[in-house]
Design goal:
The protein contains 27 helices and 31 strands. The protein is of the alpha+beta class. Helix 19 packs parallel to helix 20 and helix 25 packs antiparallel against helix 26. The longest helix is centred in the N-terminal third of the chain and has 48 residues. The protein is flat. Its main location: membrane. This is SpoIIE family protein phosphatase/ATP-binding protein. It comes from Streptomyces levis. It is found in: Cell membrane.
């Protein structure tokens, strides 16, 4: 075959006749002349099309310019000072006609017409047309819109043509339409726009014809040189000879280009590789060939008589470049079927089966990161083509994900069994096995290599492990055993036992090498799964320890949540419910980009930061701003602390967050989000609302403000917060996920669900089969503080009104049935009111809230914050806040847009006793004044 191709390559064509040489290159009887003729026709058609296109474009440009200029002129005159007043004057024409003509000439338009709302003209270039009805559409202009149209009308100074006019309304100071203004242009003489371009188009066409003639001549001469003067018929005959030889030989031939695509394939190559008929022109990676064969065909390296497996055939492959002297060239590949030769040797069939089994093992073992599942995959692959029964025993520490140790060799856990389990009655799945030192299993672990027991009837160590069960196994037909240690990175992970029964040939020494290869592939997959199990367990433990353990005590919301970690690695999703002063509650939903320990640790730092900022009672946007600063700072620390070999920016942190504060007194939820999906509100009647919360960039960019939105929530509404893992994964995009979320939240009885039922319905509808990302979901149903539990009144800026404030407080507490807390509450309230009057600024207000606790709030217009200090014995004041701190469960200050609020919270009679119940007031004051205190 190769000799014949060489002869074809070295053959020379007969010399061309003198008549062919004398024939003109551009003669119509030559291919070059026919190509040139076709090019000439195409150039002429293109020139005609260009002229027509230029004419049409010139017309369109003229109309477009007329529309733009007419609108500008009409709007400028309509908005000119005094036009609306002139329309209301006794004689609008006398005032507006000269101004309209002057504006027309200055703007370069053909007419400017002012009319009343009935369309009667007040101005026109020809005075005879004044007072007549305007020709055009004015109804949209009377509704406040601008009308642009092409219409006819009375004669104009510019003569006939296409009239383009715009009509705009004239409004007075109150926005009422008092008249209309129309301006227009007559579009004429379009040819003057395209005629100057005609010589250019014709000149380009002529130059193109000249270049086409020159190019055709040069290409045809080059082709004649490359084909050695062969005529098309001679080339066709030479091609037919090559095709006949190529498809007649019993050897596969393939020619590939430098890009890996098949240029030529004969019938024998298609048969050997199982290729379809339309394979020519396709890339070798698209042919469905075995990976090793596809890699050989695609690589540029030479190959000489190497044997590869392709489907059920062993093929001898030779490969050479098509043009060895060229830098970039394709390859020619020849294939010979050596399968029959391997069968003649007597062992090729077994080698082929083992090779295919190893290839299948590489595909089927390690499909998951589950240790026991990977062990079962090893057992399933080996049965029945290598063994009749396979058992896999792993160290107990490996199953748990811990590092294996030599101390755990004697205690292994049966993790997988495949085949007829009646043949293996010794140990069952999940049973802990202790091997004695003389068993082949223990010898394999100690020696670090496989142990062969060709005849188990002679294996004394195997029988002494459990004589009764070994006898039963021999009676059932167990014949031969290969025990193979599973080792990865030099560390033993367990054992694989391969058994054959009476119906199969006994294992031979050659089978041990194959078992070692099979065990090595499985051991690496098991070790990867073990490492993942350990890291996943650590990360899940860390993240669950960072997430809320239970619901905090608060009266504003009824809350339920769900958190589902991903299977690929736990990420940084988190949520929180944080009680705030004044009966308010903060809701947080966040997501740190990435998975693993780094994401979980970052999540914990952000969650702690949110708690700290919430404790300071900062506004919603300010909390997000400080979290953004924290993330930027974390990135800078990661970059500065990276190892020298680490890639720059590898530790960058990205996070999204939604932060909301719900006030049960006002029924308002203030929300802001940083790159996070917006919330969904389920109203009490079951309708769904997606509030318009301004979207801000994710954390880590720095320098961007965060905007807030106030959402009014009716009592019984449910606020749904979630992370993007709920609505987006590999199987669906975010739009599909959001539609599915709306369907899960809607439906009959949606407004009557409890938050727990809502979480159950959403997770049941949207949870994917495989979790590639964490899912966090929070459902909060709102409650409102009843007006009967709120008392609020203004306080004049005069300290003499403090007794009246105490009296009012006493009346409110009596109405609530809280007489036993009256004294303490009056004391706290009087101290807070006195401080607000003396050191604050008006207005001063008092508010009492009754709920789980009793909250006293005093607000004023000052932003100065009081602080607890130690008063000296000689000081007349300075002990008020100390008394408040002693009698209240907790107290603090929060700032508002109008000043500040000082609040104090007391436990009611049905709660645990407060700290102030144990110490008399006088004793507290004495201790506070004691310099030794």
């Amino acid at each position: 075959m190769e000799g014949h191709l060489s002869r074809l390559r070295t053959s020379r064509p007969p010399p061309a006749s003198g008549r062919r040489r004398r024939l003109s290159v551009l003669s119509p009887r030559t291919a070059a002349g026919q190509v040139f003729l076709l090019q000439s026709v195409i150039v002429v058609l293109l020139v005609v099309a260009a002229v027509a296109s230029t004419m049409l474009q010139a017309g369109r440009d003229a109309v477009r310019q007329g529309r733009r200029e007419s609108v500008v002129a009409a709007q400028s005159f309509a908005n000119a000072p005094g036009v609306s007043l002139a329309l209301r004057s006794p004689d609008p024409t006398a005032v507006l006609q000269p101004r309209a003509e002057e504006a027309r000439k200055r703007a370069g338009v053909d007419f400017i017409v002012v009319m009343n709302t009935d369309g009667i003209r007040y101005t026109y270039p020809y005075p005879s047309e004044i007072g007549k009805k305007f020709v055009g559409t004015i109804e949209p202009a009377l509704e406040g819109r601008t009308v642009v149209e092409q219409a006819g009308g009375p004669p104009l100074p510019t003569g006939e043509g296409t009239a383009i006019q715009a009509v705009v309304p004239v409004t007075d100071a109150r926005g009422r339409i008092v008249g209309l203004v129309s301006a227009g242009i007559t579009v004429t003489n379009v040819s003057r726009l395209w005629v100057p371009q005609l010589p250019i188009v014709l000149g380009v066409g002529a130059i193109t014809l000249v270049l086409a003639a020159a190019g055709t001549t040069a290409v045809s001469r080059r082709l004649l040189r490359q084909t050695h003067g062969l005529a098309p018929t001679e080339l066709a005959r030479l091609y037919e000879h090559h095709q006949a030889v190529l498809h007649a030989v019993r050897e596969g031939v393939l020619i590939t280009g430098e890009d890996g695509r098949l240029l030529l394939v004969n019938e024998e190559a298609k048969r050997l590789l199982g290729l379809p008929a339309d394979v020519q022109g396709r890339h070798v990676q698209e042919l469905g060939l075995p990976e090793q064969m596809a890699r050989v065909l695609a690589s540029p390296e030479k190959v000489t008589d190497q044997v590869y497996l392709a489907h059920d055939r062993l093929l001898a492959v030779n490969k050479r470049p098509t043009f060895p002297e060229a830098e970039h060239a394709g390859s020619v590949v020849t294939l010979r079927d050596t399968t029959e030769l391997a069968v003649v040797t007597g062992r090729a069939e077994g080698a082929l089966g083992q090779l295919k089994l190893l290839y299948e093992a590489g595909m089927r073992i390690g499909t998951t990161l589950d240790v026991e599942r990977t062990a079962q995959e090893l057992a399933d692959v080996a049965v029945p083509r290598f063994a009749d029964v396979v058992a896999v025993d792993l160290l107990d520490s490996v199953v748990r994900g811990d590092e294996p140790t030599t101390g755990g060799w004697r205690h292994l856990l049966r993790s997988a069994i495949s085949g007829d389990q009646r043949m293996l009655p010794v140990y069952r799945l999940g049973e802990v096995i202790t091997f004695s030192p003389e068993t082949p299993q223990m010898l394999a672990l100690e020696q670090g290599r496989g142990v062969l027991e060709a005849d188990l009837r002679q294996a004394r160590g195997w029988q002494e492990q459990d004589p009764e069960r070994a006898r039963r196994a021999l009676e059932l037909g167990v014949r031969s055993l290969v025990t193979m240690p599973l080792r990865a990175r030099g560390v033993p992970l367990g054992l694989a036992h391969f058994y054959r029964t009476q119906g199969s040939p006994a294992f031979e020494p050659e089978d041990v090498a194959f078992a070692e290869e099979l065990g090595a592939r499985a051991a690496l997959a098991i070790d990867n799964a073990r490492r993942f199990t350990r890291e996943h367990a650590m990360t899940v433990t860390l993240q669950r320890s960072l997430l809320p353990r239970g619901q905090p005590e608060q009266d504003a919301l009824e809350v339920a949540w769900r958190y589902l970690p991903s299977e690929a690695g736990v990420g940084g999703d988190w949520f929180d419910v944080i009680p705030l002063p004044g009966g308010r509650v903060a809701l947080v939903m966040g997501d740190v980009v990435g998975h693993g320990l780094h994401a979980s640790a970052t999540m914990g730092r952000l969650r702690i930061a949110v708690h700290n900022f919430a404790t300071l009672d900062l506004p919603v946007d300010e909390v997000l701003g400080k979290l953004d600063d924290l993330v930027v700072r974390l990135d800078e620390e990661d970059d500065s602390g990276a190892a020298p070999g680490d890639e720059k920016g590898a530790g960058l942190t990205g996070a999204t967050c939604l932060y909301a504060i719900y006030d049960p007194v006002a029924g308002i939820c203030t929300v802001a989000r940083a790159g996070h999906p917006g919330p969904v509100v389920v109203n009490p009647d079951g309708t769904l609302v997606c509030p318009e919360v301004p979207a801000s960039p994710p954390f880590g960019l720095g320098g961007y403000p965060f905007e807030t939105a106030d959402v009014h929530l009716a009592e019984g509404s449910q606020l749904i917060l979630y992370t993007d893992g709920l609505v987006k994964n590999a199987a669906r995009d975010i739009d599909t996920g959001l539609e599915g979320l709306r369907r899960a939240l809607g439906g009959a009885g949606a407004g009557e669900r409890t938050p727990e039922e809502t979480c159950r319905a959403v997770i049941g509808a949207l949870k994917p089969a495989s979790l590639s990302d964490d899912i966090a979901l929070l459902a909060a149903r709102t409650r409102r503080v009843p007006s009967s539990s709120v008392a609020e009144w203004d306080v004049p800026s005069d300290t003499t009104v403090v007794p009246s404030v105490r009296a009012e407080c006493r009346t409110v507490l009596s109405g609530w049935g809280l007489e036993e807390t009256a004294f303490t509450t009056e004391l706290i309230l009087s101290e807070l009111v006195t401080n607000a009057i003396r050191y604050g600024s008006p207005p001063v207000k008092v508010r009492l809230l009754r709920g789980r606790t009793l909250i006293c709030e005093v607000s004023d217009g000052s932003s100065t914050s009081p602080r607890l200090r130690r008063a000296e014995t000689t000081d007349e004041g300075g002990r008020g806040l100390f008394l408040v701190a002693q009698f209240a469960l907790r107290w603090g200050t929060r700032y508002t847009s109008r000043g500040k609020v000082i609040w104090a919270e007391q436990i009611l009679h049905d709660g645990p006793p407060g700290p102030a119940d144990h110490t008399p007031v006088d004793v507290l004051l004495e201790q506070f004044g004691d310099p030794l205190m």
